[in-house]
Amino acid sequence: MIFLELNITDKKEEKLLSRLKVEGRLKFEGSATPSNDQVRELIAKNLGKDSKLVVVKNIYTQYGDASADVLAYVYDNEQKLKDIEEVNKKVKEKKEGEAVPKETVKPEAKEKVAKEEKTEEKKEAKPEEKKEE
User: Fold this and answer.
1) Which of 51, 86, 117, 120 falls between 20 and 30 A from 30, CA-CA?
2) Any idea what DSSP says for residue 102?
3) How is the chain split into domains, by residue range?
4) Where do the H-state alpha helices sit in the chain?
């Protein structure tokens, strides 16, 4: 059985964004770190809000410790949630699309590596021939 206990350590109202910033300490036993959905339900239950209005941003754990620090936002309404959270998603998508793949290698570099490998093979082959004589 999973045991979850949430102690809310800080609540800060962000009026311009129509949300409540919630920080807390989560204690759990009997399993791995709880999922975002489980934490979302627990925060909504503690604050008496709908779980659709809760967004869990981070769950910070330390190795071997059965507790975690939680950062979440509770929005006033679904429209504000959609307006603010979608902006963040769009920014992430643009950043991922702009990234240059690491596997891209210039043709000159490939030729240089191939030449170096051939010279190393020749150097290794010559000492063996001398030993046989």
Assistant:
1) 51
2) T
3) 3-98
4) 36-47, 78-98, 107-132
Rounded to two decimals, what is the model's pTM? Answer: 0.62
Determine whether 95 is exposed, middle or buried from the number of CB atoms within 10 Å of its CB (0-12, 13-18, 19+): exposed
CATH code matching the domain that covers 3-98, chosen among 3.30.160.60, 3.30.70.100, 3.40.50.2300, 3.30.70.330: 3.30.70.330
Are the CB atoms for 3 and 28 separated by under 8 Å? yes
Report the percent of the chain where pLDDT is more than 70: 65
Closest to 36 (Cα-Cα) out of 52, 21, 20, 57: 57
- 3-class SS at 103? coil
Question: At 84, is the pLDDT very low, low, confident or very high (cuts 50, 70, 90)?
Answer: confident
